[in-house]
Amino acid sequence: MAEVDIAPNFGAELKDGFKPVNAWVTNGIAWLDDVQQFYRERSVIEKEYSQKLSALAKKYFEKKAKKSSTLSVGDTPTVTPGSLESASMTTWTVQLTTLEQRAAEHERFSVQLVNSIAQPLQNLAERYEQLRKQHAEYAAKLEKERDSAYGDLRKTKGKYDSVCQEVESRRKKIESSFDHGKTKAQNQYQQQQSDMRNMKSTYLIAINVTNKQKERYYHEYVPELLDSLQSVSEAKTATLNKLWSTAAGLETETLQRSLQLLGHLSGEIPRNNPVLDSMMFVRHNASQWQDPLDFAFEPSPVWLDDDVMASDPSSKTFLMNILSKSKSSVGELRRECEGKRKEVEGAKRVRQAIREGRDKRDELEVVRSQLHQQEMLHEAERKMITAEVEVSTITAAVGDVTVGARNHAMRNETFRLPTNCDLCGDRIWGLSAKGLICNDCGYTCHLKCELKVPADCPGELNKDQKKAMKTERQASAQASATSPTDGSNGANGRPSISGSGGGSQRSGAPGLQRSDTMGSMNTLSSGYAASAHRSVSGTTVATMRDNGDGPKINTSSARQHRIAAPAPTSPFRGNGDDDDDDEPPAGGRMLYAYQANSDGELSIGEGQTFTLLEPDDGSGWIKIKPNTIGSSAGLVPASYADLSAVRSPTTHSSNNRPSSSAFSASAVSLAGSDSAGSVKKKVGPAVAPRRGAKKAVKQVEALYTYSAQGPGEANMEAGEKMVLVSPDQGDGWVEVQARAGKGVVPASWVKDV
After folding, report:
1. What are the Phorbol-ester/DAG-type domain coordinates in residue numbering (predicted)?
2. Distance, CA of 231 to CA of 131 (rounded, Å)
3. DSSP, res 118
4. Residue 229 to residue 236: CA distance in whole angstroms
5. How far is CA 420 from CA 251, 461, 472, 475, in A?
6. What angle, rounded to 10 degrees, do the helices at 87-112 and 274-285 form?
């Protein structure tokens, strides 16, 4: 307690200050009730906290009882654990037991607050209030005595004044009396003066007495009373301090006991070695296990065969391409695996340093990084193992067939112009029809045909040599596609099925021949056949006859090929054999009617012929003049016009295109439904706005990051906003103008803005 230099004295300092002192002491005693109410409410809180801690411990004891076995030895242990618990469960039990014990400590502290603090405070307030009231009664008595003395003095002064008045009246009577009555009047006057002098003495005595009583009242009686009230207040404070100290001691003891409980818990936690849980789980789940049996070759139920790898020339070509790819990737994959393995080991060392306290990084983030590196290592190892096994398997079966091979330097290519595969002779066309082209000799093929291409690249060729080689390869491919099978039998004696173009036929059966489809693929921007028929029921492939005599083949039951129109605003180049400039056709006819929408365009009807003035420059528009008198020239969409009518055979041969006997015209029917029988007005394909025309710019936003897989595609970043050049034509790709340039991207990877 702080020491004061001069002890204050209410009696000496405050004099006649009973009323403010009494009010101050009264407020101090009343405040004791607030203090005791505080401790009662604190007791209620401690009791509620104790009950909540107990309920919490009970709740999780019940949960632990239900999950203890599962958490200790798993759902399906091979050995029953009985009453055994894992180390973590034992430590968890100590946690819950400590919580229960702490709840009991808070319960005891709650009771002590009421019995040792709150109730004594209430009794103390009542006692001090009674003592204060006694002081107030005594002060009232002193004040009453003072007022009584003042009243007696005033009465004495009144008597003195009346006696003086009587003396004056006696004097006046003497002056007015006659001679025979003067003696009597003088005697009375003298007697009255004597009484006046006596009353004066009495009055003077009363004044002195009253002054003395007043002096003692203000300098003795009231100061002593104020000092007594000061003592009461200070005694109240001293008693309150003792109770506060008791409350602090009780809480300190409660906390010390809780600290002891927590100290015991802290000593039990390090005993929970993480290895102990794993050890118990392993011992209760160990079982006899054998490696799964290796897979073995199982012949098809419809084609009896053995597990010997085929070694005919075409099979060797296929195996050679696989072996070349695998051998070239093994070294790189091994280096990649070694790098990833070092990263995983580094992450493991960091985790060990964190557990030993030598590294302050977040172990969870390190584990996440390690898992990511392990996944990448796993992917690389899978690829490496696959490549190594492919190399060893092929080498053991047919030897190293890559010796002396001249592999093509293939690159991915998106063919926006009609191009034929040099292996099977089929078309490679459309946004979804990706293919490959050799950088040196210009060899073109489907992605599916890559592994069938012989390793006979002649090396780098010039433009003329590429065209000559292209003609030779196409002739060979068409000859292979139209020639019947050699009748060779398989292992089970059944006739083999062949056909490089993907179609199969049996020996002796009438073969399918193809006629020229170059005329039907009349424009590079539309992709619709010259004799195209439309229907609302969908696209169906028309039937064809073999040489006019063979049986009718309905290919609608087979796989149907959808002809998709590429975007008219494509900036992409064509295939390698179309580098030279073709002479534009001199005219053609309209496949659909077109209504002009802006200046410079031309309105023209369906089927009307025209003269071509300016060919398509890549914008998707051509300039024509109708073959009618008085007609003016204008622009129409290239996809609405048929220019094949004026293509001459010499034009095809100059471009090294296959002759008309090499293909058959594709007839695609989009006309009215066969069942309905009604013919609806033809509607042309969607038209991109011509260059220079005003148009509303539509934007799309990239949902994911995409890297171009080949020429003609565009790179985009997730969240990037791009201009939509051409929407999805049904092939799953859209053409956009991105920051990286103009190109096509997957339609499902973008959304409209």
Report:
1. 407-457
2. 11
3. I
4. 11
5. 93, 19, 13, 11
6. 130
Task: Kindly report the number of other CB atoms within 10 A of residue 295's CB atom.
Answer: 6
Nearest to 415 by CA among 445, 459, 440, 389: 445
Do 588 and 646 touch, CB atoms closer than 8 A? yes
C-beta atoms surrounding 470 within 10 Å: 24
pLDDT digits (tens, 9 = 90+) for 687-705: 555 555 544 568 899 999 9
| Beta-carbon count within 10 A of 134 CB | 11
Burial (CB < 10 A; 0-12, 13-18, 19+), residue 118, is buried
Q: What DSSP string runs through 185-243? A: HHHHHHHHHHHHHHHHHHHHHHHHHHHHHHHHIIIIIHHHHHHHHHHHHHHHHHHHHHH
Tokens of 166: 């009587």
- Residue 327, helix vs strand vs coil: helix
pTM of the model: 0.46
Q: What is the pLDDT of residues 5-41, one digit of tens each?
A: 567 777 677 777 788 988 999 999 999 999 999 999 9
| C-beta separation of 543 from 553 below 8 A | yes
Handedness of CA 532, 535, 538, 540 (dihedral sign): negative
Rg of the chain over CA atoms, in angstroms? 58
DSSP secondary structure letters along 571-582: -----GGG-SPP
Residue 269 contacts residue 139 (beta carbons within 8 Å): no
Total count of residues recorded for the chain? 753
- In angstroms, the CA 78 to CA 453 distance is 57
Phi/psi of residue 273, each to 5°? Answer: -70, 125
399 in helix, strand or coil? coil
Dist. CA 82–CA 71, nearest whole Å: 13
